[in-house]
Every structure is written in structure tokens, then in C-alpha cells.
Write a structure and sequence with these properties.
By secondary structure, the protein is of the alpha+beta class. It has helices at about 15-25, 60-65, 70-85, 90-95, 100-120, 145-155, 160-165, 180-185, 190-200, 205-210, 215-230, 240, 245-250, 255, 265-275, 285, 295-310, 320-340, 345-350, 360-395, 400-410, 415-425, 430-445; strands spanning about 5-10, 30-35, 40-45, 45-55, 125-130, 175, 235. It is built from 23 helices and seven strands. The radius of gyration is 25 Å and the shape is globular.
Length: about 450
């Protein structure tokens, strides 16, 4: 699974970078740099656990001072001891009695969150993700879902132009996501978020939702942007205008907003009942339906179980190993659902001599996704190298630039694509491929 990344935040949205790394369960360091400052986010299995910054105001002492947790005199005294002893500032503050251990715990988490939130306001910065082990000497780490981090970070974006650029066109219809990984993630929705969700019915365009809301246009657009950024909302496709939406029959707004009633002990008990037996469950047994159950019942049970075993639920427990077990169960449920909801795949599975279990199907699907993604990225890199060589040999040939622009457009690199299409038109103003590609790239930016 390739998770390397290097480029500009103008080309790659931080919201999408974090979502992608979370979905890939990546472990490594995401560095965001401006000419004067570098900030890093350390991820383990897709979750942000710590952050660091070279900006002086992001240091723990400065953060605690601005938050009103320590005084100027306490700050100066602790820094003086730090320079002399090289101890960690947090330990010094506790030893001096300026902070309780509980205060320090809060302060470090506050510092980490604020560093990450500050990244969402950057636009002209370089980003790089390096896969691999992260520092393990941090005693206090962040236990917060990526959904909540992105939700709060997106709320701090007040740039209207940027919001319009990153959002779908206002003539697009948005609807609740059908992906339970996005729907049921651990996110603390605000009252405004919840009220906005009651207006979005899968029929109104973004403009119609804004016009019918109780807020001014900017606040309404921003609220929609936040919900879209965390994946709870998605674009409604043309296919969904003709077919019944699977999620619509199984997930209501009440289901989405309903808090989990199950206690930690009950959740752990359920996981321990299912996880050790994943290699024995048939697909219908895993989804808790009969072998001849109809699609509606399969849908209903899948969304109920996906909500119950969503990986984000481990944030509310003290069991550090629970996330891996929840992830395995969730993946197995999704694999079973993918087979049983499709009539052809379901028959193929039923007719097979050795029926594969949910765990086997989940592993198979995961490996197929990795192989497809690796093959696609390898092909793109090979094609890019070939076209760059062609440009080097024939720098005045507009067709080479147009082909490179088409490659970048296919890869979702809209800024790069625009640049190549513009170069193509400089040398060949009548190039139809470049004209169409530039228009498409600009619309997608």
C-alpha cells in the first residue's frame, strides 16, 4: 500500500490527505512546511497521536500561558529551570506545583490539537508524508477520532474563496453518505450541524439548501462544507436518481444522531464473542440474517452492525487492543455485505463448494484493493516519466504537454493538470485535448 506523498497544499487538500491516510490506516509522519515553520503530525494506523512544531508560540509553555493555565512568573521560572536542567517543561511545571498531573495531561492534548487545527488554515505550504515508525517516547498521546479533528479544523476555515473552490458546485445535490465508515465515525456534531442535516433531503441542491436555511449564506455554506469535509455528506449521483438509495432504506437521520447506549463492558463482550470466530462464520451468519434473506433485511442488518462495530468506538474504551479487533470485524461485515447484497455475487458464493468466511473475504478484498492501487500508481509514474522524457526531447510539442495534463487530471492533480494544459496551448493554441482538459481541470479545482 503506497502512502507516500509530496507536494503543495494548493494541489492536495489537507482534509483529503488526512482522510486518505486514515482510510489507509497509515503509520508515519506528515510534515507541513512554510518558509519559516515546519509542523508535523504523527499517525499510527491512521490516527493522529501527536504533533510537533518549530513555531515558538506552539510550545507547551506558551500554549499553557495563553490558555490561562499558568502565570507569567510561573512560565519564566519553569523556562529558567528547563534551560539549566534540560528536563521536559511539563515535568518541571508539575514538580513546582504549578500544574497537577491532570492539568498537564489536558495541556499536552490541547497543544497537540491546536497544532493540528492550525494546519487547516494554511494554503501556501509544502506537505510530505513519510511512511514508517514514529517517535515512541511520548507518554501522553492524543485519543481523538480523525473525524473530530477534521470537523474542528474545517470549522476554523473562514476563507470563502477556498470553501467555494473545494466544495462541489452549488447546483449539486448532496445526500447522506452510504458509507458507514463515514456515517458512524466518532464526531461531536454541533446543534447547527444537526439542524442543517434536517434540511438536506437528497433532493435540494446546495443552493436551495442555503436559501432555505435560517443562516446567512456564508455560515450556511460553511456548515455544509464542514459536514461534507468529514464525509457525512456526499454528492448524489445520477444513478441514485433512478435507483432506490440503499442507505436511505436503512439509515435515518435519527439513527445517525442517536448516541451509543452500549456500555464499554458490553461492547468488549460483543467483540470478544465475534472476533475469535471470524474464521468460522458464514457470510449470512456474520450479518445475522438467514441464507434466503432479502436485500432490504441484509442492508438493515449491515448498517446496524457497522454502527455497532465502527472502529472509532475504541476511543471510548480503555482497551488499547480493541481497535484492531473492531477493524477486523468491521472489514469482515463490509466484505459479507458486498457479496450478499449483489444477486450475482451472492449466487456465485452460494454455489461455491467451499464458502469463504467473512474474515477471508475481507482479507481478499483488502489485498485486491492494495494490488489495484499499487498497479495504478505504478502505471501513472511510468507514464509520467515517459511524457517528461518526450517533453525534454521535443519541448515545443504541445501534444506532449496535453497528454501529461490528461495524466494529471486522471490522477486528480487538477492544479498540475491546468499548468500542463496551459503550456500545451502556448505552443498549440488549437489543441482540442488541451482546451477541453483545461476547462475540466478548472471546474474541478
Amino acid at each position: 500500500m503506497a502512502t507516500s506523498l509530496k507536494g503543495s497544499l494548493r494541489e492536495y487538500s489537507l482534509l483529503k490527505i488526512l482522510t486518505d491516510l486514515h482510510r489507509k490506516r497509515a503509520t508515519g509522519t506528515l510534515a507541513i512546511s512554510t518558509p519559516n515553520v515546519t509542523k508535523k503530525v504523527y499517525l499510527v494506523k491512521g490516527d493522529a497521536i501527536f504533533a510537533a512544531s518549530s513555531y515558538e508560540d506552539d510550545r507547551l509553555g506558551e500554549m499553557l500561558l495563553k490558555a490561562g493555565k499558568i502565570t507569567f512568573e510561573q512560565y519564566d521560572k519553569s523556562v529558567e529551570i528547563l534551560k539549566r536542567t534540560k528536563k521536559r517543561l511539563g515535568a518541571i511545571l508539575v514538580e513546582l506545583g504549578y500544574l497537577t498531573p491532570k492539568d498537564l495531561f489536558w495541556g499536552v492534548k490541547y497543544q497537540v490539537k491546536e497544532i493540528i487545527y492550525s494546519l487547516f488554515q494554511l494554503e501556501d505550504a509544502e506537505c510530505e508524508f513519510i511512511e514508517g515508525d514514529v517517535p515512541t517516547d511520548e507518554v501522553i498521546t492524543l485519543k481523538m477520532s480523525m473525524g473530530n479533528l477534521i470537523h474542528e479544523g474545517a470549522k476554523r476555515i473562514d476563507n470563502w474563496t477556498r470553501i467555494r473552490r473545494e466544495m462541489p458546485k452549488t447546483g449539486i445535490v448532496l445526500t447522506l453518505s452510504k458509507d458507514p465508515l463515514s456515517l458512524f465515525q466518532d464526531v461531536e456534531l454541533s446543534p447547527y450541524d444537526k439542524k442543517m442535516l434536517t434540511i438536506i433531503d437528497g433532493k435540494k441542491t446546495i443552493k436551495e439548501v442555503i436559501d432555505s436555511s435560517w443562516m446567512n449564506s456564508f455560515e450556511a455554506m460553511k456548515t455544509i462544507y464542514v459536514l461534507w469535509s468529514i464525509g457525512i455528506l456526499e454528492e448524489k449521483t445520477a444513478e441514485e436518481d433512478e435507483l432506490k438509495e440503499e442507505a436511505g432504506k436503512t439509515v435515518s437521520l435519527d439513527d445517525l444522531l442517536q448516541p451509543f447506549a452500549e456500555e464499554e463492558d458490553a461492547l468488549i463482550k460483543r467483540v470478544e464473542e465475534i472476533y475469535p470466530n471470524l474464521d468460522r462464520f458464514k457470510l449470512n451468519e456474520l450479518l445475522e440474517v438467514g441464507e434466503d434473506e432479502d436485500v432490504e433485511a441484509i442492508n438493515k442488518n449491515y448498517y446496524r452492525l457497522a454502527r455497532e462495530f465502527h472502529p472509532d468506538r475504541y476511543f471510548n474504551t480503555s482497551d488499547a487492543a480493541l481497535k484492531d479487533k473492531l477493524t477486523a470485524v468491521f472489514d469482515a461485515l463490509t466484505a459479507a455485505f458486498t457479496i450478499l447484497k449483489d444477486g450475482h455475487k451472492r449466487k456465485e458464493y452460494s454455489d461455491s463448494p467451499g464458502k469463504q468466511t467473512g474474515e477471508m473475504m475481507a482479507e481478499k478484498m483488502h489485498m485486491e484493493e492494495i494490488q489495484i492501487e499499487a498497479a495504478q500508481e505504478e502505471k501513472i509514474q511510468e507514464a509520467e516519466e515517459t511524457l517528461l522524457k518526450a517533453i525534454k526531447l521535443e519541448p515545443l510539442n504541445g501534444e506532449h504537454y496535453a497528454n501529461l495534463g490528461s495524466l494529471y487530471l486522471k490522477a486528480g492533480l487538477h492544479k498540475r493538470a491546468s499548468g500542463q494544459f496551459e503550456k500545451a496551448l502556448e505552443f498549440d493554441p488549437g489543441n482540442v485535448k488541451a482546451q477541453k482538459g483545461l476547462k475540466q481541470a478548472k471546474e474541478s479545482e
